[in-house]
Amino acid sequence: MTTTHRTDGGTDDPNDDGSRDPGPGGPDAPDASGAGASPGDGDGELSREEADELIEEIERRRSLQGTAAVAVAAVGILFSIFQLFLAARSFTFTVWLPTVEFAGISLAPWQVSLQLLQANAIHVAFALVLTFLLFPGSMGDGIVSRNLGRIVPAISRQFGGNNPLTRLATSVRSAFRWAFLDPDRERVTPFDLLCIAAAILSALYFLTEFSEIQNMRVFGIDSGRPVTEVFAFLRPLLGGVPFVSEYSYAMILGVTGVLLVLEATRRTLGLPLMIIVATFIVYARWGYLISSGTPFLGLLAIPELTWPDIVQNLWYNTENGVFGIPVTVSVSFIYIFILFGSFLEMSGAGQWFIDLAYALTGGRKGGPAKASILASGFMGTISGSSIANTVTTGAFTIPLMKRSGYSPEFSGAVESSASSGGQILPPVMGAAAFLMVQYTATPFADIIILSTIPAIVFFFGVWVMVHLKAVEEGIGGVSDEDTVSFWSHLQRGWFYLVPIGLLLYYLIIERLSVSRSAWFTLVALVALIAFIAAYSEETRVRLFGILAAIVGLNLASHVLAGVPLTGLVTGSGGAGLPIADAVSAVSAGIEWYVMLAGALTLLSKPDLDATLLELNPTIQDTATDLGERTDRDLGDSQPFKLGTFVVKSMDEGARTAVPVVIAVAAAGIIPGVISVSGLGPNLTSLLLALSGGSKVIMLLVTAVASIILGMGMPTTVTYIILISMLATPLVQFGIPLLAAHLYILYFGVIADITPPVAVAAYAASGVAKSDPFQTGVKAFSLSLNKAIVPFAFVFVPGIVLLRRKENAAELAIREQYRVVNFADLADLSYSVPEILIPVVGVFLGVIALGATVIGTLYTRVDRLGRTVFAFSSLLLMAPGMLSESVFDVLGLFGVSVSVNALLLDLALRGVGFVLFALFALRNRRTSEGEGDGAVGAGEPTGSAAVAADSEST
């Protein structure tokens, strides 16, 4: 029987009509558009399988079975193991192997020492292999496939079906389809295997011929050996071919590698991004043809570059190109955090957080929508993907929102809008935040600090809008059976909060590197899950006894021989340690001892009922499936389920990371071209000239470019491209470097819910069964504060806790600001006018914006009220945008104005506050004056009133 998970921890029977509830008013009730809803358009929760299928459909992933599925899992697990070695030991590590010598063959631990370029190349090669396994090259629905598909019918009409030419064309078409097409997304094609082989060859070249690559940095890529010298067996076949002897093997691999990245980009991220990246490569080769004397456009003229120069800089370089800074950040930071999120999700934390959100807010006015916001925020700590957050959380939240009275479009808009905020919500955030660490040379702890207030403002803004919508429609909370008790739920799963607390501790208190913090947190998470899985009334004495024995033996080993017990057994001991040092050494590895104690306890009681732990249902399904395949009962074996949890988490982490790695590899080509061509300074000059010296125009250009470029593309790609082109011009206007980067990031995130593409909103509409475009429009309107807040902190950096340094005049423009500290906050002459008042103004402005968008505060807001609320919102949130615009206009007429910027900012916020307070009071008096006989703030209206009436009858 197929089951779906409810927020109360139970299951829904698909034979129960309530699992496909047609919504308030019965099956014939009108939907949001006024049309009758068909029985097939119910709003029941999506099952996990349906949610996975929806994600695969949106991302165009394959659903592989058999050997191909095993291959994907094996490659994904190896990818994760490789990254775990890098996180634990950096680029020099030992692969443990038993020391054995048999029949003249010696086996010993393998010492691995990688250079950065080699590590990056292996990282990208893993992603390329998984891309060609997971994403079809063509499903036959593309422009090229459709046009080629017309050739055979045209020949048949011209010459007849039995003509030899027609039969030949038919055979060629069949061969083409066999080699390239995968219409059902269920098989790996020969072309995929060819691409996989090329990706592996490229990685092997970096591993085996790195000395030749180092020489090429001095003598050029043409100094490398030709193919016939690398593979001597090809000399009789290809030795006389001019092309083969003309170019080096490194050149051929470099061209192939760049083409593979472009093809992987097309498969995972779409044709538009591939075209953009390819255009930059073409520009690098022929951009010299642009005349430097052409007005404006002449600034894009570059020196002439040859193909060997371009390929060497794009493929054999860690400064820029495919293996540049973005991939370095992916190797060092991004992957390990994705893996951490995968482990957290597979541990069951995702469902627990969703239930926690309902326990906190489900019973409030508009409770389902508010729970959706909280759940999406919680899920943001697990996954930075807008689509994954939307579908995973929305499968539970959207049906409940629809049942409570929200329209399908509004329900989908709330979920997609809140889910898009996962990329800007500390402490994990999205991949772009880790790129910000590298590009700005800022500790991740500081990125967390400066990102916190804007993220809270965003989620608060969506919260306000759904509350006002609930006031307008008279929507209450969910019923008691759809929620759980907060305290009982917290007691049951409090341990899911421990990894997030540890992560913050390592990042902010210990101030460890991002990769080390993630590694320690990941190990602690696995140890915690092993311990919770082994803990029960029956085994707790045994569990603590085993843990005490392990700790005691290791403590004694350190005291006696200065090494852990494993070292003592292998004979590597030496002088003992003082007891204090031994305790410190044992404490440093306590998570490993906890993990071992949990595993040993489970092995001693394999049929234990782990009552405290509810792993992701995927773990149970995988264990059961493997048991059926091996004719063994593994579904109830707790040790096997624990091992499945670890392996499945690594597999899922690799699958999630693939699009991100391909995105950063492809996007790295663009700053690579800008660097090798020397375009950067000219591009800055061009943008400054086009803006006419106006900060507002420059910000608007950046915002529009971010939204347009980000449509249908990952935020990571948008961020890399735009900071390469626009970050420097923004800083030239005096905007703090970190504020400029955060500004670009915010507008890149907005693109996920901006029509006409709006990928997150499209995903939500699939769950809500709503109109995709209308869902996107509503999602964008709910996220309007996300578009205004960046202007607010650009003009007033105190909102993101940035302060101008005392000696700023002596420093480079990029180094003039710093993150505030406690002394700054204690300085009331600074913190009150530049932090407290602007932050309070932003929160009040969000409420005014909500009244503008929804059209309700205490009661309906008339047209004049909405206009005033909109104006007050701008004054409260970003008065600098208005004042700068006025000054720019006056400057066109030669009028120069000199004012105290801080006093003007405070004065405009004061005006905004007065307007907001007056019209809020006016609206409240209107509400009170309507009396009991009119529709008030607490009464249902419209469809919600119909639903309430039907329930009462």
Automatic annotation (TrEMBL):
Chain intervals with Low complexity compositional bias: 28-40
TM ranges: 68-88, 116-135, 191-208, 243-262, 269-288, 323-344, 447-466, 494-512, 518-536, 543-563, 583-603, 657-680, 686-709, 716-737, 743-764, 784-802, 835-857, 864-882, 902-921
Record-given protein name: C4-dicarboxylate ABC transporter permease
Matching InterPro entries: DctM, TRAP_DctM-Dct_fused
Residue span(s) of domain TRAP C4-dicarboxylate transport system permease DctM subunit: 257-603, 646-802
Alphabetical UniProt keywords: Membrane, Transmembrane, Transmembrane helix
Pfam families linked: DctM (PF06808)
Lineage, top ranks: Archaea, Methanobacteriati, Methanobacteriota, Stenosarchaea group, Halobacteria
Region annotation (Disordered) ranges: 1-49, 927-953
Organism: Halorubrum persicum
Superkingdom of this protein's organism: Archaea
